[in-house]
Design goal:
The complex is a heterodimer of chains A (164) and B (402). Chain A is an alpha+beta fold. Chain A folds into two domains: 1-53, Arc Repressor Mutant, subunit A; 64-140, Lrp/AsnC effector binding domain/regulation of amino acid metabolism (RAM) domain (Alpha-Beta Plaits), CATH 3.30.70.920. Helix content of chain A is 29%, strand content 21%. Chain A contains five helices and six strands. Chain A has helices at residues 7-13, 20-27, 31-43, 81-88, 114-125, and strands at residues 64-72, 93-98, 105-111, 131-138, 144-145, 148-149. In chain A, a hairpin with a 6-residue loop joins strand 2 (93-98) and strand 3 (105-111). Chain A starts with 6 loop residues before the first helix and ends in a 15-residue tail after the last strand. Chain B folds into two domains: 23-56 and 299-398, Aspartate Aminotransferase, domain 1 (Alpha-Beta Complex); 58-295, Type I PLP-dependent aspartate aminotransferase-like (Major domain) (Aspartate Aminotransferase, domain 2). A seven-stranded mixed beta sheet of chain B has the order 2-8-7-6-5-3-4, sandwiched between helices. In chain B, strands 9-12-11 form a three-stranded antiparallel beta sheet. A two-stranded parallel sheet of chain B has the order 1-10. In chain B, strand 5 (177-182), helix 9 and strand 6 form a beta-alpha-beta unit. In chain B, helix 6 (111-123) crosses helix 10 and helix 12 (297-320) packs parallel to helix 14 (382-398). The chains are: A alpha+beta (164), B alpha/beta (402). The A-B interface holds A 11, 14, 16-18, 22, 25-28, 154, 156, 159-164 and B 29, 31, 34-35, 38-39, 42, 44, 46, 48-51, 55, 137-139, 187, 306, 309-310, 312-313, 316-317, 359, 361, 365, 381-383, 386.
């Protein structure tokens, strides 16, 4: 496991879009060193990908998003892993977590419309061997997205531009 | 006609004859004058802000809202809420290794500014002298003057990373010196003073029987090593007023809340002035401060970490473009030299603002020894630091060297 102390990784997680040249300036490394660290992070599959964080209110996004609770019957060898990995492979499943509590898997799923999510749940998911039951909750509105508030930004126009 | 002209003239200066002599002579803060120019350019990138870029952490704001909902709108004890003083006592003990009694040795004030003002007024007789290091926070010299005392500046220099040189303090000393005023890490230089030199200063303070007033508002933002308060050194606690507040570390500038810790007789003397002028610090700010001390340390550490990397970046960029800049050991200010350009601080800042729309503060706003420097706050996003420093670099390239 790569420690989170890794300085390049920390910068990536800071949330600002920085290129290698900028990261090298912040960290006091050469650009080549930053590039090699980035490749290392990718090769070790520490860094899985890049994705912008969008405000769902601002984009013409017709997708329907749902959270699905899944109860499973564990297998003798491997517990929930085999089924969980199998379910994770569906395109519509964006994230999949094993949970403690009254259900086992929590899926974040996406579909073109209500019907496609419904058919995914009933035809694909429910029919996977080992799935005992599912509960689907459709997402209605977003208030905070990955650390970003969607309401009016906290801009303080009264803050003086120069202060002691 | 003549009469009306006379009355217009009189109108213009109406009231002037009532202003006290020592206030007439008081200089306006250099920052305020420059502010007027910057205020007319809202599109400029400002590195001139002397406060955190962060909004007060939500849990602290929420505590203030909750207190308001509960109807906490009254005065408090003159010294401040006892619950807050107990939290301050615990906090100062834990992080500064200093133990003060919450009942008698702690006074809650309206920011460190008030604490400094009433500390000076409580101890200075007209004509007493106060040693302080410069460049420094804009209000030190005026606050001393307003207490009818004489400020004696001790210059700190870039070659010492703006730490104080105790020998210079000894040289500057003259009969009548009563107070030594310190501020480490320093606004605007980010200077700190290493323990050995603090020890030398402490011995000097004992030798000359000086009261030390130590403004430690930036202490949480010390990047390398441990912050040492001079009050912890042998023989110092009984002759030190330890001033601190919530503005910088906890990003609570607008709450206007700070405190003073020190010997009972001094706190009692300050409390007298405080009770007759301010009465007490606002109760909502006191409630927010309690929450800050109880649960705010993780937010402070997060902010400090963010500042550390930004500091490295801005210092590197200044040095790259030929503006020599020492590494500030604390605070969120870089204080590069602009001597290379041949311009004075104010012309440099005005020129930069006009040509590239970047605001930095002329070093002279922090006393004459700030000449040849500018203060740039790095309490902002990487993006803005990159953009601002790129523009400063372009300004240097276009400006023919004098």
């Amino acid at each position: 496991m790569i420690p989170i102390m890794n300085s390049v990784l920390e910068l990536l997680l800071s949330g600002e879009r920085l290129d290698s040249a900028q990261m090298s300036k912040i960290l006091g490394l050469t650009e080549a060193e930053v590039e090699s660290e980035l490749s290392h992070l990718k090769e070790t599959r520490t860094l899985l990908g890049w994705r912008a964080i969008l405000n769902p209110d601002k984009v013409q996004d017709e997708f329907v998003r749902a959270v699905i609770e899944v109860r499973l019957s564990p297998e003798r060898d491997g517990g929930f892993d085999r089924i969980a990995e199998r379910i994770s492979r569906f395109d519509g499943v964006e994230s999949c977590y094993l949970m403690s509590g009254s259900y086992d898997l929590l899926l974040f799923a996406k579909g073109n419309d209500l019907r496609s999510v419904a058919s995914f749940v009933t035809e694909r998911l429910a029919s996977v061997e080992g799935v005992l039951s599912t509960a689907t909750h459709f997402r209605l509105r977003t208030y905070k997205e990955q650390g970003h508030l969607l309401g009016d930004p906290e801009l303080n126009g009264d803050k003086p531009a120069i202060s002691p | 006609m003549a009469i009306s002209l006379l009355s217009v003239l009189n109108m213009k200066n109406y009231g002037q004859q009532f202003v006290a002599d020592h206030v007439v002579g008081l200089p306006r803060s250099g920052i305020r004058d420059f502010f007027a120019i910057v205020a007319a350019m809202p599109q400029a990138i400002s590195l001139g802000i002397g406060e955190p870029d962060f909004v007060t952490p939500w849990h602290i704001r929420e505590a203030a809202i909750f207190a308001l909902e509960k109807g906490k709108t009254s005065y408090t004890d003159n010294l401040g809420l006892i619950r807050l003083r107990r939290e301050i006592s615990t906090y100062v003990e834990r992080y500064f290794d200093l133990s003060y009694h919450p009942e008698k040795e702690i006074l809650v004030t309206v920011g460190v500014s008030e604490a400094l003002d009433i500390a000076l007024r409580a101890v200075l007789n007209p004509g007493d002298k106060v040693l302080y290091h410069e460049p420094c926070y804009v209000s030190y010299s005026p606050s001393i003057l307003l207490a009818h005392a004489k400020p004696i500046a001790v210059k700190t220099e870039a070659k010492d990373a703006f730490g104080i040189d105790p020998d210079r303090v000894a040289e500057a000393w003259e009969p009548g010196c009563k107070v030594l005023l310190l501020n480490f890490p320093t606004n605007p230089t980010g200077g700190v003073t290493e323990r050995k030199k603090l020890e030398q200063l402490a011995r000097f303070a004992v030798e000359k029987d000086l009261l030390v007033i130590s403004d430690e508002i930036y202490s949480e933002l010390t990047f390398e090593g441990e912050h040492t308060s001079i009050a912890t050194l042998p023989g110092m606690k009984e002759r030190t007023l330890f001033l601190h507040g919530f503005s910088k570390g906890f990003a609570m500038t607008g709450f206007r809340i700070g405190y003073a810790c020190g010997p009972e007789s001094l706190i009692e003397a300050m409390m007298k002035i405080h009770q007759y002028s301010m009465l007490c610090a606002p109760i909502l700010s006191q409630e927010a401060a309690i929450e800050a001390l109880k649960n705010g340390m993780s937010s402070v550490l997060k902010m400090k970490e963010a500042y550390g990397k930004r500091r490295d970046l801005i210092v590197r960029r200044f040095n790259e473009m030929g503006l020599t800049c020492h590494l500030p050991k604390g605070s969120f200010y870089a204080f590069p030299s602009i001597e290379e350009t041949g311009q004075d601080s104010l012309s440099f800042c005005k020129g930069l603002l006009e040509a590239e729309e970047v605001a930095v503060v002329p070093g002279t706003a922090f006393g004459p020894s700030g000449a040849g420097f500018v203060r740039a706050s790095f309490s902002t996003s990487y993006d803005r630091i990159f953009e601002a420093t790129n523009r400063i670099e372009r300004y240097l390239e276009q400006k023919p060297q004098a």
